[in-house]
Amino acid sequence: MERIPVQDGSLPDRFAQLTSVPAWPAGNGDRAPGAPDPGTARALLTDLVTAAVHRYATHGHGEPIMLVHAATAPNAVLRTLPALPRELWPASLDAAWAASAAVTAAYAPATPAAYEGTYKEAHEEAARSTFDEVFARAAAHGDDHTVKFADTARDVGDRAARTAALRGVELNPPAL
After folding, report:
1. Domain residue spans in the chain?
2. Mean pLDDT confidence for 89-109
3. Taking the complete model, does pTM exceed 0.70, yes or no?
4. How many helices (H) and strands (E) does the chain have?
């Protein structure tokens, strides 16, 4: 995803630099947003949440608090789908993609974090930890963004998501 030219300023300043919403990533064949059936829209939204959570482990250091929204915003949409008419699910996917892509373009760092010395410890701890343990660490941390992100990571449910949640605990300033 192409980053905005000036990675500085407030959210409105950064979003003002967006000239368009980045296209849905290649590799999804005919499953691009805009016209999928409701079931495909739900599957793509799940894929978006998973990708955003996983990416946080390597890119969250850019703007740790802001970048949680690249995952938590589409996850909020995913959680509300059952309450919406199915014909709104494709439009909901489009809105979630636009929000996630805009936050990523506005706040993502130019390069991922190096594994050694940066997120290796979180990755190794994720292998030894359950989601209950990871979520307990996030809750004890107290920052609302960290807690919401850990909850979203729990929905994804794999080791990479546990790693990302632990990175959130490391990167965001504690509230408690």
Report:
1. 49-171
2. 95
3. yes
4. 9, 0
